[in-house]
Amino acid sequence: MRFLVLGASAGGGLPQWNCGCRNCRDARSGVIPPSGQSSLAVSPDGESWSILNASPDIRQQMLANPQLHPRSTRDTPVASVLLTNGDIDHIAGLLSLREQTPFSLFATGDILDVLAANKIFDAVNREKVTRSRIALDKDFALQDGLQARLFAVPGKVPLFMEGEAVDTDLMGEQTVGVRLSTGNKVAYYIPGCARVTPKLLDQLRDADQLFFDGTLYEDDEMIRTGTGVKTGRRMGHISVNGPEGSIAQLAGVTAAKAFIHINNTNPMLQPNSPERAVVEKAGWSIAFDGQEIAI
Question: Which residue among 70, 217, 286, 294 has its CA within the 20 to 30 Å range from the CA of 165?
Fold first, then answer.
């Protein structure tokens, strides 16, 4: 299996258009590299690719990675797109893939219902782009030579669907992780997760590679930095640090582990920061745009 990180950042990217935090200033000035919004490409052979989450930045991401360029006048090496939730930063890129080139679109019924409820997504012609409803915990072919399985992780409905009361610990079809396998290697992609459950820990026992939610380093990070009013938990994301954080909770997972879907405020993006040192000492890497990983 081969992976290509198209976008390592959370919604808004790095730098975020309206943010003047240290990371965003440093990304604008070239001190740290900019990063697009969350998306990962996977291939069983390096020729045919599946995109996991269609970022609003997908046009630029595809332009920046020759592996995804057309091979003839009207063509794409992208065989399929899979969605892990209905967040804007994971579905808006579908609108940039509306030019009548066939590919397969996979998602749970709940996520496809989000698309069906908004007529703008009808621009992605259903006669060209087949929409397949995928049941949880069932293997299916993401493309030839690449099997996938969707499973529920704690999360919430997309921000634009929130009501007055918000359950950030829902288990169902609205937020899923992905198990990927070529038969002899197994990888997991979980860009959004509110909590590590015993069931999830058990699920990850066969992992060779794990891409996991690295949105915030601390739960109250956005409040402390003056960039927001919500905690990570309120947004449906587990923090990286602390006894309830992902480093501690996933310490027993022996796979190669990489954080992805990283918010622009996260201090571990600074290469010489103490937070970065903690992450690397714990055996984690931090995904970056254009990164290639093969297992």
Answer: 217
